[in-house]
Fold this sequence. Notes:
Helices cover 40% and strands 23% of the residues. The chain has helices spanning 30-41, 141-152, 171-186, 197-214, 233-245, 252-259, 263-273, 278-295, 303-309, 315-326, 330-336, and strands at 7-9, 25-27, 45-48, 57-64, 67-74, 78-82, 88-96, 98-103, 106-111, 114-119, 125-128, 132-140, 163-167. A hairpin with a 2-residue loop joins β4 (57-64) and β5 (67-74).
Amino acid sequence: xxxxxxxxxxxxxxxxxxxxxxxxxxxxxxxxxxxxxxxxxxxxxxxxxxxxxxxxxxxxxxxxxxxxxxxxxxxxxxxxxxxxxxxxxxxxxxxxxxxxxxxxxxxxxxxxxxxxxxxxxxxxxxxxxxxxxxxxxxxxxxxxxxxxxxxxxxxxxxxxxxxxxxxxxxxxxxxxxxxxxxxxxxxxxxxxxxxxxxxxxxxxxxxxxxxxxxxxxxxxxxxxxxxxxxxxxxxxxxxxxxxxxxxxxxxxxxxxxxxxxxxxxxxxxxxxxxxxxxxxxxxxxxxxxxxxxxxxxxxxxxxxxxxxxxxxxxxxxxxxxxxxxxxxxxxxxxxxx
Length: 337
């Protein structure tokens, strides 16, 4: 998949609900604007004006369980550059103006009423033309991978590759705008999402899942739009049984008996339709459950206790399997929560 497509979206214009607007920051200084954007985005960016005659910026930012929702308004335009590229799923809904993300000689851009979704690590610079105004949602790619894994109850083994443009007035656009407006309203001062971390996380994940369901990317087959779409009912039933009955003792034989098939047929079906053995899927699901517990701020169990509960009795093998699945040690996951 190419990081960018040379295309420009020009759908109908749209107006965002008042819940997502601001501003809570206004400035005529590019340095101050760059600093504020860096703070809101959670990554370092530098800003420079497009016109030497003047500069103005208006911003409003919300934090949603590690994700960011940012209202941007650049009446005189702006150019942004990444001082250190960082992998994030970023989605920009544009109400006015024109914006383009560039990587070398290739550009992904849109006009008013359009939406772009991409990994910001694949862009070198961003140009917002005069009058650019819209809403931005950005979330660390590591969080996106965790969401994908939790949706399918198995580790997502590769980085998300996405570079898409679509119409904000589409069903997908309307759904995501509605979710972002709900989040912004709930994140205002003294609003419920300010103190409800679990609800904020679920809403963040709903936004990510809605986008991934509707866009093309290298995990599209996982969402039923690729070669895995027609899965036999026995395999679907086996997947459901594993998801709802998984513990440290569940075996492939028990799964086969529960869905009324043989172990050999189950193995063949998994290899053909999931590209994984049922044994490997059981391990992947258990590892995902371990990771969820290690990330749970309320959990007081030791790593060894959590691993044993999910069927991992050999500490060395468990640590190796965990690192291969998630790219880090269990202790690193525990420290990151």
